């Protein structure tokens, strides 16, 4: 926290004359001969956040290891629910926003306003009638150009935070109790702010050049200094991503949005060419952590995983069951990205993991609803009479919360719509494990699920695990209230039985495992620290023995674009070296464990079928009450629940989330705590 506050303090001081005239020259004088023009920025902007990420890895590792030891104490206490989780906004462009989120958003806006006002004041102070006359322009035209430059500097602040929310395996988010899917909205907010400021930055300068007859400046690519062409390319690429991310376009043409977003690579490359490494290093930490995460995901996605079986439900839904490494553990509501090359080699789709690593030590399951083009093709492929006996699948993940504590509540209410029930399956299985392992009383659990047709009731069968020791839920205080909105009565004859498919995995298929093994956070710590050290060594060699002999700190002889290119290559090489070494080391151990799993999975299909038949489905039937032809009256249902702490989770359509959030934020719902928990991307 101390280091982070110091990092924020640097951003606050950056626009002031104290920083520009005193601190910055002193820092550059101490570092430029060793690390070039970017030395000062590496020291005060990049290093602090990477230091926090490294310490965060160690902290999360210790917390994860200590979780089993402290399970009794942590689950035996009812933690007070903070007022900071209360909701302040339910509807609007920002979505559902808590008090904490609003407080940080306001502070960030204040930082932007402060920085812009100070930059503008200092810039305008240097513009006089005399200085304008010397350049042959009017005072207001100079001020327009100065304001445009300052807008670009403010946009850089947004860019500095932009990549932190999308680094899925970063340790920075778990330190704050966040997950990547929950932080996507922050990435969206920052993206809108950044592109608004960068667009205004470009327009101001182009208008100034047009008014002063200097449009030729748009074609400038300087050897040293700001390269306008590179900035224009970055702006055009950013605008393409921004337009494709408009909600209406994203919903109707998701593939366009998906593929267009890969242009972020060009955006970052030309942004660095535009501003040089000194300014680029101010926004480097978030992008550096994202690159580490992205390269690890790339290495994991090269493997083909072992798909053991699938359950095809009558509601155009399939459950995929993968073999997993025994050392792989994950929290409830974790997600995993899946790629099926026979459908699309480039598309990766996130799905909630419904299995529990404690109940099912050898199996990992995800549920996929046939809603979009990709998922419908998968469903058709598996539901045809001549079903395939093997399917090539690659995965990334799992990703999820570092820890959970559902026992802080007296009652847990889960509200779902359609396939939104899948995250709650993982929570119920976790509580199922806790009630059979620990003696403490778990909360009362109420699942309110709304489906269009009665065929969707088959999704309730997924609550019970397909493998592992059969667990009876009769000891749980579980109530399921199912609402069939588009059917008046239940026709038992129309129900279709679940179809079970068993696959024949290839010898090359691997069990799903953590890319960095069970001690993944320590390995990530090693990758971040060692790669940054390698990067500094490479930059030291380039600066000391290539750039410095020609430049002697004049920064005028050596080409700035070439220097930027060398720095970008150094970053990529250092990350690739450190991450590849760590992954290769862990792969040796994973292969040994994979052989053991193969031997354990030698049981026959007949035995598995018997196990399925022995599962206590009767408990699910007894706990379920079905209502036909009506929608759930959520306001009445939620207000019925008594108790000092009622945790409310919701997963489903946007309107359902807003309705539940509105109920929980009303004055009459003092005991209802809406968990700001996102189950989708």
TrEMBL record:
GO molecular function: ferric-chelate reductase (NADH) activity; metal ion binding
Keyword DNA-binding carried by entry: no
Record-annotated FAD-binding FR-type domain positions: 300-405
Alphabetical keyword list: Electron transport, Ion transport, Iron, Membrane, Metal-binding, Oxidoreductase, Signal, Transmembrane, Transmembrane helix, Transport
Localization of this protein: Membrane
Membrane topology qualifier: Multi-pass membrane protein
Signal sequence bounds: 1-18
Domain of life of the native organism: Eukaryota
Catalytic activity: 2 a Fe(II)-siderophore + NAD(+) + H(+) = 2 a Fe(III)-siderophore + NADH
Gene3D superfamilies attached to this UniProt entry: Nucleotide-binding domain of ferredoxin-NADP reductase (FNR) module
Entry keyword Calcium: no
Transmembrane segments: 42-62, 94-116, 147-167, 188-209, 229-249, 261-291, 521-543, 564-585
Pfam families (UniProt xref): FAD_binding_8 (PF08022), Ferric_reduct (PF01794), NAD_binding_6 (PF08030)
Annotated protein name in UniProt: ferric-chelate reductase (NADH)
Species of provenance: Cajanus cajan (Pigeon pea)
Lineage: Eukaryota, Viridiplantae, Streptophyta, Embryophyta, Tracheophyta
């Amino acid at each position: 926290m101390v280091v982070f506050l110091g990092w924020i303090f640097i951003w606050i001081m950056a626009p002031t004359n104290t920083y520009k005239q005193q601190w910055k020259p002193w820092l550059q004088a101490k570092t430029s001969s060793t690390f070039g023009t970017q030395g000062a920025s590496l020291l005060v902007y990049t290093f602090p956040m990477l230091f926090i990420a490294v310490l965060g890895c160690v902290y999360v590792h210790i917390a994860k290891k200590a979780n089993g030891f402290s399970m009794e104490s942590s689950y035996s206490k009812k933690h007070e629910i903070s007022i900071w989780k209360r909701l302040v906004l339910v509807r609007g462009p920002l979505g559902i926003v808590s008090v904490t989120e609003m407080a940080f958003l306001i502070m960030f806006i204040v930082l932007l306003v402060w920085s812009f006002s100070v930059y503008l004041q200092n810039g305008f102070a240097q513009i006089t009638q005399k200085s304008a006359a010397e350049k042959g322009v009017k005072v207001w035209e100079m001020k327009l150009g100065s304001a445009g430059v300052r807008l670009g500097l403010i946009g850089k602040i947004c860019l500095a935070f932009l990549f932190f929310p999308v680094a899925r395996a970063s340790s920075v988010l778990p330190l704050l109790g966040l997950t990547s899917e929950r932080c996507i909205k922050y990435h969206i907010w920052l993206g809108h702010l950044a592109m608004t400021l960068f667009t205004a930055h470009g327009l101001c300068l182009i208008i100034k050049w047009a008014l002063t007859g200097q449009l030729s400046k748009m074609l400038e690519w300087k050897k040293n200094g700001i390269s306008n062409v590179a900035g224009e390319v970055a702006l055009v690429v950013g605008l393409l991503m921004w337009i494709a991310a408009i909600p209406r376009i994203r919903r109707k043409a998701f593939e366009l949005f998906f593929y267009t977003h890969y242009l972020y690579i060009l955006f970052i490359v030309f942004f660095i060419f535009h501003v040089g490494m000194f300014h680029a290093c101010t926004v480097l930490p978030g992008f550096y952590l994202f690159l580490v995460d992205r390269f690890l995901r790339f290495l994991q996605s090269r493997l083909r995983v072992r798909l053991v079986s699938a359950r095809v439900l009558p509601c155009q839904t399939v459950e995929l069951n993968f073999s997993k490494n025994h050392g792989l553990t994950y929290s409830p509501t974790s997600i995993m990205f899946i790629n099926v090359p026979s459908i699309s080699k480039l598309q990766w789709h996130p799905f909630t993991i419904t299995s529990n690593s404690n109940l099912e030590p050898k199996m990992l399951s995800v549920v996929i609803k046939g809603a979009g083009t990709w998922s419908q093709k998968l469903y058709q492929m598996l539901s045809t009479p001549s079903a395939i006996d093997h399917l090539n699948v690659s995965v990334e993940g799992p990703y999820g919360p570092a820890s959970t504590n559902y026992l802080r509540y007296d009652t847990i209410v889960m509200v779902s719509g359609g396939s939104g029930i899948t995250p709650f399956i993982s929570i119920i299985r976790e509580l199922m494990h806790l009630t059979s392992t620990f003696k403490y009383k778990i909360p009362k659990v109420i699942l309110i699920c709304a489906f269009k047709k009665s065929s969707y009731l088959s999704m309730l069968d997924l609550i019970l695990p397909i493998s592992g020791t059969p667990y009876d839920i009769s000891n749980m205080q579980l109530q399921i209230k199912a609402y069939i909105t588009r059917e008046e009565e239940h026709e038992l004859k129309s129900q279709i039985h679940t179809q079970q498919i068993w696959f024949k995995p290839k010898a090359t298929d691997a069990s799903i495992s953590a890319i960095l093994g069970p001690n993944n956070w320590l390995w990530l710590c090693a990758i971040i620290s060692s790669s940054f050290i390698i990067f500094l060594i490479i930059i030291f060699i380039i600066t000391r023995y290539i750039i410095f002999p020609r430049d002697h700190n004049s920064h005028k002889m050596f080409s700035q674009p070439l220097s930027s290119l060398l720095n970008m290559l150094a970053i990529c090489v250092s990350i690739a070296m450190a991450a590849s070494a760590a992954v290769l080391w862990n792969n040796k151990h994973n292969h040994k464990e994979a052989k053991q799993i193969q031997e354990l999975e030698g049981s026959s299909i007949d035995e598995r079928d018997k196990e399925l038949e022995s599962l206590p489905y009767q408990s699910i039937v007894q706990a379920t009450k079905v209502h036909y032809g009506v929608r759930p009256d959520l306001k009445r249902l939620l207000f019925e629940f008594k108790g000092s702490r009622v945790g409310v989770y919701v997963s489903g359509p946007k309107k359902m989330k807003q309705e539940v959030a509105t109920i929980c934020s009303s004055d009459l719902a003092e005991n209802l705590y809406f968990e700001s928990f996102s189950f989708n991307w």
